[in-house]
Amino acid sequence: MSGLRQPSDAYTGDRGEPDATVRASLAAAQQSLDHYLHAIAQLCTTRVLLPIVPVPDPDGSRLAGVGRIEPEHPEREDPAEVHAELVAVTLTAPDGRIGLPVFTGADAFAVWQPDARPLPCRLDEAAANALDQGATALLIDIAGPHALVIEGDLLTELARSRRLVQLDDGGWGWLFAAAEDPD
Fold first, then answer.
1. pLDDT tens digit at each of 183 positions of the chain
2. Burial of residue 165, with CB atoms counted within 10 A of its CB: 0-12 exposed, 13-18 middle, 19 or more buried
3. CA dihedral 160, 155, 103, 132 (to 10 degrees)
4. Beta bridge partners of 52
5. Does residue 145 have a cis peptide bond before it, meaning omega lies within 30 degrees of 0?
6. Integer angstrom CA distances of residue 179 from 45, 124, 183
């Protein structure tokens, strides 16, 4: 398992409520390419939940993951989780392609895999982690209520910390921070 990039802590205290605007955009995404791109642009402005699971590290050596679990009261914890790394969940299709699931709310997350832990992050952070994990797609709300797949050039641009935005003329473009001038 490859390492997981540590997301920003901008969502500390997030309770996992879904954004109604994002959910409405996901519901409309199947109507047209423009609606699909609008849904992705909406996802760029909110947090998503990345599922992580503990992987036991019985010998105490450090696995590449998002962080180490060191329980407050090890005597009351599951022995398999006393020393564990948190790693992102990936899914493999029959043809070998790998997808990284992310969710817009704790409700959709819990329906899919209630034993995983939600890690709040931005869409660009999830995209970067997807590529780092060898995934070719982000699988948004795969358990519903409205699933969406982001792959190809869109995934690559998001992983480069770019945000999809609708332009004044109705077209689409990428918003990103300009590189600092070395002089």
1. 345 555 556 666 777 888 999 999 999 999 999 999 999 999 999 999 999 888 775 554 443 444 433 444 445 555 544 456 778 889 999 999 999 999 999 988 888 887 788 889 999 999 999 999 999 999 999 988 899 999 999 999 999 999 999 999 999 999 988 776 555
2. middle
3. -70
4. 88, 117
5. yes
6. 21, 17, 12
